[in-house]
Write a structure and sequence with these properties.
It contains ten helices and seven strands. The protein has a seven-stranded parallel sheet with strand order 4-3-2-1-5-6-7, with helices on both faces. β5, α7 and β6 form a beta-alpha-beta unit. α4 packs across α5 and α4 packs across α10. The N and C termini lie far apart (66 Å).
Length: 254
């Protein structure tokens, strides 16, 4: 026999709010979902002692055996992930000691996978900040599983990429790479972010796709703004440039 209150207990309004998926995915809860994306990643990063990161951007289309310069770009991203993890403070120290300069990427293949792979090869953790896309993005196999995240909101993903960054290294890429690069450059230009070093890998590529001098010529940026970043041509040169620009291994920039 059906209970007298069956209609009441079956009603969507009677579900516990935290267990009501329709409610949680409603427009009214957008702000709550945004907060949840922040808190979930934040909790995991704190649990692993990640105090600071080195963010590596670059194209997902660059392969280990790719054509043209692709193979070289991949190899240098992998080498950088390895040496930065060895020298930067990402490897586990004494109990409770924070990890600094942990490699963080967008979590996908290409340059991102190469940097995560280099970190994994020396036993260091690395982070993958993935994003849900219309054509499902799959995480690469080298980011630390417990530090492999998936976001719905680009804004929250960008916040997590930026908020612990001690440095930014940008390999050749397309629209997505440009988006992330100019996001950080704008934060630096407007002094909304700390003065972290920014290194662009392969000067010839970047000068061919972005006419920096033309921006100055037309008054779109000040000549001094080009001092916000520097160039490097191999993994060792990236590391030297980061150190010369103020990166301090083993501690975060306040």
């Amino acid at each position: 026999m059906r209970p007298a209150n069956a209609a009441q207990t079956a009603s969507a309004s009677y579900r516990l709010a935290a267990l009501d998926q329709d409610f949680l995915l409603s427009d009214a809860m957008r702000g709550v979902r945004f907060l949840m994306e922040y808190a979930k990643a934040e909790q995991a990063l704190r649990a692993w002692g990640v105090r600071s990161t080195i963010v590596v951007f670059g194209s997902a289309r660059i392969g280990e055996n790719g054509d043209g310069e692709h193979a070289r770009w991949y190899a240098e991203a992998r080498a950088f992930g390895r040496l930065a993890s060895e020298r930067g403070g990402a490897l586990h120290g004494a109990d409770g000691q924070p990890r600094d300069n942990v490699i963080a990427t967008g979590g996908g293949p290409g340059v991102m996978g190469a940097a995560n792979r280099g970190a994994a090869e020396v036993g260091a953790p690395s982070i993958g900040f993935n994003i849900t896309l219309p054509h499902e993005q799959e995480p690469n196999e080298w980011s630390t599983p417990e530090l492999t995240f998936r976001f719905h909101y680009f804004a929250m993903r960008k916040m997590h990429l930026a908020m612990r960054a001690n440095a930014l290294v940008v390999f050749p890429g397309g629209f997505g790479t440009f988006d992330e690069l100019f996001e950080i450059l704008t934060l630096r230009q407007t002094e909304k972010a700390p003065p972290i070093p920014i290194v662009l890998f392969d000067e010839a590529y970047w000068r061919s796709v972005i006419k920096f001098d033309v921006l100055i010529e037309h008054g779109m940026v000040a000549a001094a703004d080009l001092g916000l970043f520097r160039f490097a041509e191999d993994a060792e040169a990236i590391w030297r440039t980061l150190l010369a620009s103020g990166l301090e291994p083993g501690q975060s920039i306040e």
